[in-house]
Each structure stands twice: as structure tokens, then as C-alpha cells.
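hey so u asked for the seq, here:
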Amino acid sequence: MKNIAIFICCYVILTTSCTSSNKKTEETRDSIDTPAAIFPEDTQGVSEVITRFTRAYLSQDNEKANALIHPDLGLYVIYRPGAADTYERIDSIDFSRPTPEYFPYVTFENDYALTFEKLPVFDCGEEKWDKLGFFCDTTSLANQLTTIATFEHEFNGISDDELTAIKQLEKDTFRVILTKDESLIFHVKKHQNKWYVFVLDRAYGGCDA
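ran it, C-alpha cells below
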């Protein structure tokens, strides 16, 4: 009986220890899987450039919008001329001369406040966004331009140097989506300790081939 009691006691201790160990392992895994904000100390700077560019875009103010585009980086405009997305680099934005020229820049009223959370997704089947609002996701990096450039490199022959340059430029870039009746999508990037608008995405949010 004494040996049985000792065995039961050891079994209970071992089971408790394993449960505790498994719980700690799960907590560690959850901690690793959950993305953390990448630049919480600089939300004021990124918020400012996002809200300023949005106001300038919606009021179609060339001067104020171009003040937020770095003269060396330029602005990469993503659009969809056919089945696949492509891009064009421009030095500045001119709201009277859109890129591409057949797709006018739209303006609309925005009454949403900027929030930092997961971005909305456009459902082509239902032709609508899964949520409306004004969002920037600081837990993940934008890579849309690199994805397009990689495709162009493989099938349309852009140079190795251009692809490498695009990948380098798009590092540490964050995506912003404003959705309402219309949408505004752009990317911001910190360059020389200041935030700039780097990409204007005019393709996503539509499902035309």
C-alpha cells in the first residue's frame, strides 16, 4: 500500500508538471504568432503623413500632395490595364492629368478617423469591402509593388537591377486603405527620418479583368 501511495503521488506531480510545461509552451507559441506593432513610438509621424495626404488627395490639391512625395523616391502608381497589374513611376501627382490617363482621380467625403488595425479586404464575388473605414496596418509590411515587379521580371523582361531596386525601396513600407463609396489606397515609407507617400494603388478594390 505504501508503494502504491508513493506511485500515485509521483504520478500526480508528473502530470501537473507536464500540464504546466505545455501551458507555458502554448503561451510562448501564442506570443510568437501574435504580430507586434512595428513602430509604436512613431505613430504620430506616420499618422500625420497619412491624414495630410488623404486630405490633399480628396481635395485634389497638387501642391499639398506633392509635398509628401520625396523627389528622389517619386510615386509608384499601381493600376490594371488588363488581366495583370502593372506600375508606373511618376515624379509628382497632377490631379488634372491622372495616371493612367483614362482613370480620373475621384474625390469623396471622408468622415472616418484613422485606426491602426487589420486592413479591409475586397470581395470580388459580392463586390464589396468586408469593412468600411480608414485603416493602416502597422503589423505587416506592404509588398504589392515587389510582387508586380517580380512578375514583370519573369514575364516582361524588366532588369535584375530594377527588380532589386524595387525590393529595396519597398522595405519598411506600410499600406493604408480608406474605404467608403469609393476607396483610396496608398503606401507610406520612412526615408531620411521623415515619412512620405511612396505608392498609390489604383488597382485593388476592383475586379475587372
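The longest strand covers residues 183-191. The first helix runs from residue 2 to 33.
lmk if thats what u needed
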